[in-house]
Design a protein that fits this description.
Helix 1 packs across helix 6. The longest helix has 28 residues. It is built from six helices and 18 strands. 19% of the residues lie in helices and 31% in strands. By secondary structure, it is of the alpha+beta class. The chain has two domains: 107 residues, 3-layer Sandwich (Rieske Iron-sulfur Protein); 203 residues, Naphthalene 1,2-dioxygenase Alpha Subunit, Chain A, domain 1 (Alpha-Beta Complex), CATH 3.90.380. The strands form four sheets. The protein has an eight-stranded antiparallel β-sheet with strand order 11-17-16-15-14-13-12-18. It has a four-stranded antiparallel β-sheet with strand order 5-6-7-8, with no helix packed on it. Strands 1-10-9 form a three-stranded antiparallel β-sheet, with no helix packed on it.
Length: 363
């Protein structure tokens, strides 16, 4: 077991899987809210993030902004209004708000009305762009120097990319567990193009702690998968998990690069967006986009279906039995999350509670 686990595994799991805590994502973290390329300068769109309705946009010069999608006057969604590249006009009574959230104009006021609308401000949220996606931190607590998990970066120039997004009717934690669960692959993703061999094999991998997560150290894999065969040679694969719900698979074969990134985004109590992005450095692979897209969607849909059925079972009885070394990464997720919450609560620096460990399982 990991050195940091001083309590019994059953106690740890029981605490982590409290029905309320099970559905509460980390409050101070970056979450993926969609592709960056689909948001042009002078455009805006609504997004949902952990129960919060947010409007994200780019001003006329392309600078990003994000603010609560609610006019403070009568609660109207600002995303339903017009954006001229500098200010958003509420469609209900024409109130205007700058991209800084401050009210710029209330056209219904009489010239003799001394009401000061400049004091009215819509809540803003931090928003950044990385790896071709937009990321928002919905945290509304006091400004602190807390450690916040870094947003993913790509690390190479992509010649092409495919993105699939699916809404899963399941809690954020349950969906995130699928990103660190090696045992489900042989049963959920039993596809001819992904797993031509149906035989369960012993896996031995070394896991190393990294900031806000852990990584399955780089290893040479087999060429059994048709996906790997496209690279030629035996690729090296490194898989990282990072809070709050980010899985980063990096594949290297000589000078060829492929990255398979998956992000979990909490939408509401039992709704989570799963985003899968596949990047590659070889221009010829762009020819396979028409074939690859439906296969990626099929792969993600398999997770979607099984997670929704599992959520129904957890709604009836919100307990899990995490057993064996194959389930240790799931326990690690909860320990990392607990440490992040405790560090934030006490105002200290996040300290990864995990240590390097070799795991064995069959898949």
């Amino acid at each position: 077991m990991l050195a940091a686990t001083t309590r019994a595994a059953d106690d740890t799991v029981s605490d982590a899987l409290d029905p309320k805590a099970m559905r509460e994502p980390l409050p101070n973290a970056w979450y993926c809210v969609g592709q960056a390329a689909t948001l042009k300068a002078g455009g805006m769109r609504p997004v949902e993030l952990n129960g919060e309705q947010i409007v994200v946009g780019r001003d006329a010069s392309g600078v990003l902004f994000a603010m609560r999608d609610r006019c403070p006057h009568r609660g109207m969604a600002l995303s339903k209004g017009r954006f001229d590249g500098a200010s958003v006009m509420c469609p209900f009574h024409g109130w205007r708000f700058g991209t800084d959230g401050r009210c710029r104009d209330v056209p219904t006021l009489s010239e003799t009305d001394s009401s000061d609308f400049s004091r009215i401000v819509v809540q803003r949220f931090p928003v950044i762009e990385s790896a071709g996606f937009l990321w928002i931190n919905p945290y509304l607590g006091p400004a602190t120097a807390q450690d916040v998990p870094a947003v993913p970066e790509l690390g190479f120039e992509a010649a092409g990319c495919l993105v699939v997004e699916l809404v899963v009717e399941a809690s954020f934690d349950l969906t995130t567990l699928s990103l660190v669960d090696p045992g489900h692959v042989a049963f959920v993703h039993d596809s001819w193009w992904f797993r031509p061999s149906k035989e369960l094999r012993e896996k031995v991998k070394t896991f190393i702690p990294v900031p806000h997560g852990f990584v399955m150290s780089s290893h040479a894999t087999t060429k059994s998968s048709p996906v790997y065969k496209l690279l030629g040679g035996v690729p090296d694969v490194e898989i990282e998990f990072r809070l709050p719900g980010v899985r980063l698979e990096r594949i290297v074969a000589g000078d060829k690069r492929v990255a398979n990134y998956t992000f979990a985004t909490p939408l509401s109590n039992n709704r989570t967006m799963l985003t899968n992005a596949l990047y590659w450095s070889m221009p010829l692979l762009n020819l396979l986009k028409p074939v690859a897209r439906p296969l990626m969607r099929q792969f993600l849909s398999q997770d979607q279906q099984v997670l929704q059925h599992a959520q129904a079972g957890l709604d009836r009885k919100p307990t899990m039995v995490l057993l064996g070394q194959g389930d240790l990464p799931s326990q690690w997720y909860f320990r990392l999350k607990r440490e992040a919450l405790d560090a934030a609560r006490t105002g200290r620096t996040f300290e990864n509670p995990l240590t390097q460990q070799e795991l064995r399982w069959r898949s």
